[in-house]
Amino acid sequence: MHGDSVYNIMFGPDICGYSTKKVHVIFNYKGKNLLTKKDIRCKDDTLTHLYTLIVRPDNTYEVKIDNKKEESGTLEADWDFLAPKKIKDPEAKKPEDWDERENIDDPDDTKPEDWEKPEHIPDPDAKKPEDWDDEMDGEWEPPMIDNPEYKGEWKPKQIANPAYKGKWVHPEIDNPEYQPDDKLYRYADFGAIGFDLWQVKSGSIFDNVLITDDEKYAEQLAEETWGKSKDGEKKMKDKHDEEERKQREEEEKKRKAEEDANKDKDDDADNDDDEEDDDAEPKEDSPKEDHDHDHEHIEL
């Protein structure tokens, strides 16, 4: 088997980034791989989970996760195995006089004579600056402000449309290409099992793969395998998480203690510098004559 091998059914979780977290249920029918129309969410934690697909002879299906039903329905409704039973009548057309407008403008409504007002008007309180020079600055114009009398675009009020007939629905007819198939569930042979893996992070483990025609046996075996280990796994996971949390806390305490110790060292160093500066101050306060004398002596 290889990546392009033909298969009967592809089933299992698909997790990719933050957006894709779903269960694939893909059936091969007459050479085409058919994806489910439903969005079946998968588990995205790090614990072990049990995925079960049940396909029944009445062309119904059920998807279970951890022995609990997550989705169910019919194969014909949730996959495009068959052509649709009904199609739009290609001969039917919406009548030209069919009115779908529920409301219309009132023909008797008229715009008030005083409706038209500008949206912006010159600020009546604005005054030309005293230092405004028309020759240098151009003709002064007051700034514009919103017109409190502006009412917006006038529109006539709406009334119920007496000619309204509702939304036109395209009539349907039986699809001549539809052919029922009561054996959608059936495959002649399941000769092999393959894993289609694409991982960017290692660590996934697969075990206890079962194909059977006995739903009760599958459920029983699940409880005898995954059912017996899941609680212990959860307990170990919680313990591991708690140990990691404590370790992070200890590392954070250690880091903070080191920062505080370094800060104390820096403060001590600053204090030593201040003390040296204090010891040097009397030399600066000595009489000017002595200072000048020392200075001249050094220059010689």
Write the layout of secondary structure elements.
Layout lengths: L8 E8 L3 E10 L2 E4 L15 E5 L4 E6 L2 E7 H4 L7 E3 L14 E3 L14 E3 L11 H4 L6 E3 L11 E3 L11 E3 L40 H10 L1 H59 L3 H12 L1
Antiparallel strand pairs: 1-2, 2-3, 4-5, 5-6, 7-12, 8-11, 9-10
User: How many DSSP-defined strands?
Assistant: 12
pLDDT < 50 runs, ≥5 residues: 283-300
The chain-level mean pLDDT equals 87
Tell me what the CATH architecture of the domain at 9-85 and 179-224 is: Sandwich
Shape: flat
* Largest pleated sheet: 3 strands, antiparallel
Q: What would CATH call the class of the domain at 9-85 and 179-224? A: Mainly Beta
Specify the helix fraction band: 25-40%
Cα-atom radius of gyration:
42 Å
Q: The CATH topology of the domain at 9-85 and 179-224 is what?
A: Jelly Rolls
The termini sit apart by 99 Å
As a percent range, the share of strand residues is 15-25%
Number of helices: 5
**Spatial sequence of strands, sheet with the most strands:** 1-2-3
Global structural class: alpha+beta
Q: Provide the succession of SSEs.
A: EEEEEEHEEEHEEEHHH
Q: Can you walk through the features of this model?
A:
With 300 residues, this protein is an alpha+beta fold. Among the domains are: 123 residues, Jelly Rolls, CATH 2.60.120.200; 73 residues. It is 30% helix and 19% strand. The protein is built from five helices and twelve strands. The chain has a three-stranded antiparallel beta sheet, with no helix packed on it. The protein has a three-stranded antiparallel beta sheet with strand order 4-5-6. Strand 5 and strand 6 form a beta hairpin. The longest helix has 59 residues. It is flat, with a radius of gyration of 42 Å.
